[in-house]
């Protein structure tokens, strides 16, 4: 599956976040884009600890100081640029990053390639 436009860069505050869904009729993947200091990152909207959505409201993913991504369920904290959990029940785990590209102000996101089975 190719990349899908999920937002216009100008519609995402810096710092800020925007949630979206990828996929087609039979398979939907929740995700979000985070913008900070001119950089943009995309992750699935699934906590690696609890398997629940991270946000506590529409487009609300960041701590009050906009320094980290925070899970609304258990308060786990994740680095914006890497998705690494730096505090909470999933310490050391990471959010699943998504392929991201910004072309002519359009934010395009794609699903990661499926992992190959080990033989």
Topology:
Elements: E1 4-8, E2 16-23, E3 28-36, E4 39-44, E5 68-70, E6 77-79, E7 85-87, E8 99-103, E9 106-110
Antiparallel strand pairs: 1-9, 2-3, 3-4, 5-6, 6-7, 8-9
- Mean of all residue-level pLDDT scores: 93
Q: How many runs of DSSP E, i.e. beta strands?
A: 9
Instruction: Using the alpha-carbon principal axes, give the shape.
Output: globular
CATH topology: Rieske Iron-sulfur Protein
Measured distance between first and last alpha carbons: 25 Å
CATH superfamily: Rieske [2Fe-2S] iron-sulphur domain
Radius of gyration equals: 14 Å
Overall CATH class: Mainly Beta
The level of helicity is under 10%
CATH architecture field: 3-layer Sandwich
What are the secondary-structure elements, in order, as H or E? EEEEEEEEE
Low-pLDDT regions = none
Question: What does this molecule look like?
Answer:
- The structure is a single chain.
- With 119 residues, this protein is mainly β.
- The chain has a single domain (4-110), classed as Rieske [2Fe-2S] iron-sulphur domain (Rieske Iron-sulfur Protein, 3-layer Sandwich), CATH 2.102.10.10.
- The protein is built from no helices and 9 strands.
- The strands form 3 sheets. Strands 1-9-8 form a 3-stranded antiparallel β-sheet, with no helix packed on it. Strands 2-3-4 form a 3-stranded antiparallel β-sheet, with no helix packed on it. Strands 5-6-7 form a 3-stranded antiparallel β-sheet, with no helix packed on it.
- A hairpin with a 5-residue loop joins strand 6 and strand 7.
- The two termini are 25 Å apart.
- The model has no long low-confidence stretch (mean pLDDT 93).
């Amino acid at each position: 599956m190719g990349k899908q436009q999920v937002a216009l860069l100008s519609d995402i505050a810096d710092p800020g976040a925007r949630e979206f869904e990828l996929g087609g009729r039979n398979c939907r993947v929740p995700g979000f884009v985070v913008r900070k200091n001119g950089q943009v990152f995309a992750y699935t909207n699934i906590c690696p600890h609890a398997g629940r959505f991270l946000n506590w409201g529409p487009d609300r993913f960041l701590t009050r100081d906009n320094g980290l991504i925070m899970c609304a369920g258990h308060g786990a904290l994740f680095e914006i640029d890497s998705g690494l959990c730096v505090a909470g029940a999933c310490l050391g785990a990471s959010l699943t990053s998504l392929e991201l590209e910004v072309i002519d102000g359009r934010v395009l996101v794609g699903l990661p390639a499926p992992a190959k089975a080990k033989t």
